[in-house]
Every structure is written in C-alpha cells, then in structure tokens.
Amino acid sequence: MIWLGAIIVLLTFAAIIKRYETRMVLFVSGLLMALLSGKPLEAIDAFGKAMVNPTLVTVICTVMGFAYVMKLTKCDAHLVHLLAGGLTKFRAVLIPGTVIITFAINIALPSAAGCAAAVGAIMIPALIGAGVHPAIAGSAVLAGTWGSTLSPGATHNPFVAKLANTDVMTVIAVLTPADLAALAVVVITLTAVAYIRKEHHVEGQSVIDGNDLGEFKVNIIKAMVPIVPLVLLVLGSKQVQVIPEVTVPQAMLFGVILGFVVTWVNAQEISKQFFAGMGDAFGSVVGIIVAAAVFNEGMKLIGLTGALIEAMKHSESIAKLAATFGPFIIAVLSGSGDAATLAFNGAITPHAAQFGFGIIEMGQQAQVVGALGRSMSPVAGAAIVCAGLAKVNPIELTKRNAPAMVLAAITTMLVLL
C-alpha cells in the first residue's frame, strides 16, 4: 500500500508539472489513496475542515479582497510606479531585496501563508511592474517565507528550548548564524536563476496600464495606502507590540476603508470589488488549499507519511542526513514542515549527544530544513498564495526555488552539525 501511495504521489506531481488542473489532480489523488486505505470519508472530512480553516481562509480572502480594492482605486498602481520607478535604477537589488524584506517581515509575522499574502499583495505586482518575470516575482516572496525560524513565537523554538532546558532566545541565537548564511545562499542562488533564465527583466513588461513608468504621476498618499495594513501588522505583532495586536482581516479592512477615504471612489463599487476578490480567492487560492488537504490526508491514510517519518526516525546512524533531508523531503511533498519536524525532534533530538551533536543544533536543523522544504513545495499555502498573486502555476515557483532551498539546507547542515 505504501509503495502504491508513493507511485500515486509521483504521478500527482508529474500531472501538476504537465499542467493538468491542479485542484482536480490533488483531490483525485488524495481521494484515491483514501479509497485504497478504506477510509474515503476521512479525506472528505479533511476537505470540509480546510474549507472553513479560520486562519487561512479569512487571511487569504480578505487580502485578495483588499488587493481588488487597491486595483479599483489605483492605489496599487501608484505604489507600483513609485517602487518600480526607484528600483529600476537599481535593478540588481530587485530580487534579492524582495527575499530579504519578506524574510525579515516573516520574523514578526510567523505565518508563512499570512506573510506571503500580506507582502505578496504589494511586492509581486511591484516586481512585475518593474519588468521581473511573474514566476520569479512570486518565487522571490516565497523564498523569504522561512524567516519565522528566528521568531520567538514559532512553534519549534520553544519546543527545542524545552528539550535543551534553556530559554528561547538562546535557541534562536544558536540558529541565527546558520540562518543568515542560508539566507545569503538563497538570495544569491535565486538571483542567479533569474539571470540564467533571463527572467530578471522581461522586455516590454515594465509598462503598467499602458503608461510608461516615467510618465505616470505618482500620488504619494495613494501610494502609501497599500502599505498601511502591512505596517499595522508589524507594529501590532507580539515581537514589536508598539500598538495593540492587529489581525490580518482587521488590517485589510482598515486598508479598504482608508482607500475609500483617500480616493473617494464610489463606495458601492468598492464593496462589489472587495467581495468579488474574496470570492475569486476562495475559488482559486483556497480551492487549491482544500484540494491539497485531501491529498495530504490521503498520504497519511495510506501510510506514506507515517512510513517516511518512521524511516527518518530509524536513520540514527546517519543522523546528520536524516535531520536535514528527512523533514525537508516530507515538507516538499506535504507542503508543511511542522509534522515531520516535531516527529523528528520528539524522537531523535533528545538523543543528539549519542550522535555527537547538541540538542539545540540538531533540533534547529530539523526546524529550518522543514521550513526550507515548505518554501519550495507546490502544495504549501504560501506557494499557492504567491502563485495566485503572480498568476502562475505553483510548480513554476518550485522549479525556480528548488536549487536555492536545497543549497540552503546543505549550508545549515554544514554550519549547525
């Protein structure tokens, strides 16, 4: 059954690569594995739970609704022209700058999908407007969505700190050099991929709504409106706490209201566009996440996820490779690094000294490679969000991010273990 599940997974990714309808492929594959396990209703239950996920659904739908309003009011065009007009003078920093900015914001906003939605709504259109290929624009944001590994609010940092009988900030301090080295590798590698593929600048693309960047009259106030929700989220985060905590839906709705106040566009049209954006987001972006939930549940029911984790647990003789590529591979396949990382850290990391490693080093290695694997997975929520904003297939982001994430995982292994 496990081998049959593995074949189905391979065929699933092959179908996605060949650009068959992603939602259909993921749903059918997951349901097929669930049927073979004799528990098809559990896959259907996963479908229902994902539809009403209180975190992802509210975040993604309100962000997309906000994006539609910004397009209606043309506030996004003012921001895009402002950023593109300045950044095009320093084209070399467009891609690396986006990765670094996203990474830094993800420390304050630990949710990968939430960060991807909030930052991507601003930076992806800006990059595309500046002439960067849409797939690279989406990849640049996705490539920074593992900054949460340095967040005190991330699940794994307190977990590893408890295992090592120390405080969270000590755990983060140990990881920081490895994370920064890996970030440099990601930035350099993704930028190189963009230049090799000649996607760092697409001729004729740096024109928005038929207007040349130099001729568009930028209104600074309108240009700032799309940034306000992001600023509120950062200032209200647990790590900053300059203002009371602000949720993503709250920030986006405030941005919609501010857009109306600044532009005085017909309120009825703003309402229509906001809810149109929410509907489109649910059908396209959330739809893929729901289908991916069925796929992940199918992998679990047929025993494939458990087998992968067990194989990783029993690789004690090659603990270094297991700590690196076990969570990484499972994260790529499932779109989440949490399950594999927690399983590894619960079973293997307490015995790190027997392998010649420190508990903090081994535990943090498992955490960071799980996050890196997720940042190249075509079924991860953050990848789906970025792909939706860039209007490309998620697999296109995987193809561009894979070299950077693999090299970064190896880099952290060399630094930590």
Automatic annotation (TrEMBL):
Protein name in the entry: Cryptic C4-dicarboxylate transporter DcuD
Transmembrane segments: 50-70, 90-109, 121-148, 168-196, 216-236, 248-267, 274-295
Membrane topology classification: Multi-pass membrane protein
Keyword Repeat (UniProt): no
Keyword terms of this UniProt record: Cell membrane, Membrane, Transmembrane, Transmembrane helix, Transport
Keyword Lyase: no
Matching Pfam families: DcuC (PF03606)
Superkingdom of source: Bacteria
Subcellular location: Cell membrane
Entry similarity comment: Belongs to the DcuC/DcuD transporter (TC 2.A.61) family.
Xref: InterPro entries: C4_dicarb_anaerob_car, C4_dicarb_anaerob_car-like
Organism: Sporomusa sphaeroides DSM 2875
